[in-house]
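> @MW can you paste both from yesterday?
MW: sure, first one:
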Amino acid sequence: MQEHLDTVPGLELETSQEFQFERMASFEWLEEQARNRHYSTFALYEAAEFDWAMRQFKRNLRSHFMDIDHITWRDENTALVVRKSAG
């Protein structure tokens, strides 16, 4: 990230903080999100690739979670505070 900030004159990374939180959703909700291409990787697929990816996505969910009405995961994020100097 610092390399990208260095390409813009006057930008300086002030602080960063990593945080995470637990998430839970149903299989149906996750499938709908994927079908609407909410997840960035799904938005990149052509129609045939997307159909294959959706089948894999659903197969993976079913094989990794016993209760598909309560699929849990941990979102991990990084917050950056970037300041631009006046000059």
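MW: second:
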Amino acid sequence: MNPKVAVIGGTGICDPSLLSNTQEHILKTPYGTAKAYTGNWADQEVVFLPRHSSAANKESPGKHHYVPPHKINYRANIWTLRTLGIERVIATSATGSLNSTMRPGNLALLTQFIDFTKSRPATFYEEGAVCHIDMTEPYCPEIRKALLASAEDEGESCFPSATYVCTEGPRFETPAEIRAYKMLGADLVGMTNVPEVVLARELEICYASIAIVANMAAGIAEEKLTATEVEDMMKAMLPKLKSILKRTVARLPVPRNCACKEALRDSQV
């Protein structure tokens, strides 16, 4: 197999049985060991990486979600995908909404992010070369176009643009924080998209994320937030999301025609 596309599954999308003919791969990287799976979606070869259970040195019997967002080894994950020959990544993101028009069960394509993480290694360039990677357009336009068309084919409305604020977690945000993020222009809030999107750009991997609105954010929701409601919404959305992702993988153009593949040009000093 020589897959070029990977799917990173987030909350509620952690089970490798989504693929057929699955093979597990445990790879050692300069940043630690990570686990991914190769397999098939229809006639497409893909890699599946479960974001919250990719730590190969951990075991949690019966669970596919055991690494909290602030402890995910994002560098090992993205490096593993590069090692497997991946050129494109489609990620899923469970989110809370700050935007009254984006309601639970809605889909949205991320186009910008605001980073409020605190302690995560955020670059591959910590020694030697200094890299100032351009993030003017963080999410690959080719993948976003394919995702939007695939959602339309499935009869699902999908917001074509959303600004995502990434928080450290694992706690939910306070209503005061949500009000501040809303003033900054954020539509959605989550805990995992950064530094994932940045690291993919540093390796010139195309990256896009489809967000699933799981709940309204703190202070906007009428009741307290629970992890259970997020998990339940993601399970309910899984069949639709799986169909959209399959269609997207099949319609991606070959070769790549976007600027992502040359992201490092003029970035190093």
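> thanks! The two ends are 37 Å apart (CA to CA).
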